[in-house]
Hints:
By secondary structure, the protein is α/β, with parallel strands linked by helices. It folds into two domains: 9-99, no CATH class; 103-173, no CATH class. 42% of the residues lie in helices and 12% in strands. It contains eight helices and seven strands, in the order E-H-E-H-E-H-E-H-H-E-H-H-E-E-H. The protein has helices at 16-24, 38-48, 57-69, 85-96, 112-115, 132-135, 141-146, 167-184; strands spanning 9-11, 29-31, 51-54, 77-79, 127-130, 150-153, 161-162. Helix 3 (57-69) links the parallel strand 3 and strand 4 (77-79). Helix 4 crosses helix 8 (167-184). The longest helix has 18 residues, at 167-184. It starts with 8 loop residues before the first strand and ends with a helix. The chain binds zinc ion (ZN). Zinc ion binds next to loops.
Amino acid sequence: MNENISPLFIVDAMFGKLGKFLRLLGFDTEIANSDLKDSQIFEIALKTNRILITRDKKFYETAQSQLKKRNLSPNMALFIPFQEIVEELVEIFSILGIDPESFIWKEGEDIPFQSFQSRCSMCNHELIIVEKISIIEKIPLNSATNFMKFWQCTNDNCGKIYWIGRHWEDIRNKLIKVKRIMQDR
Ligand SMILES: [Zn+2]
């Protein structure tokens, strides 16, 4: 995906799982702290040009009336009343015209970090590729044995290490489901 047209998101605290998933797909995504008020979350969304994702109908309606007052696109706040990642992504991608195909890598390829620039699921910072030798003491032995490529979060306070383990198959399968559902619509 083109970095320049990739939307930024802010999700309310209930959407932690979706937020992390969006980060792995390369979307710059803030997960709002649970003690922030709706008005504060909306303020951050406006200031940082992020699309608000909420499953709170009231919050959504307030956000819509604020967007209208300010002459901003209604797509800057999305009402996503689902509990499941696949349904959530179908709705978000449909509204924003995002093609799920651009995230689906070929089976056996270990390069979702090259197809799209994943961000750290924990802290939203960018990842860089690192030499195995430099992080080998921080990863489980079987991952060190079975994987060749590793990436690390660039946030010094986080430093989470990534490799294309089993869960990436699950991510890929979810994206394929999203694509099928969108095609059938
Ligand atoms: Zn991180």
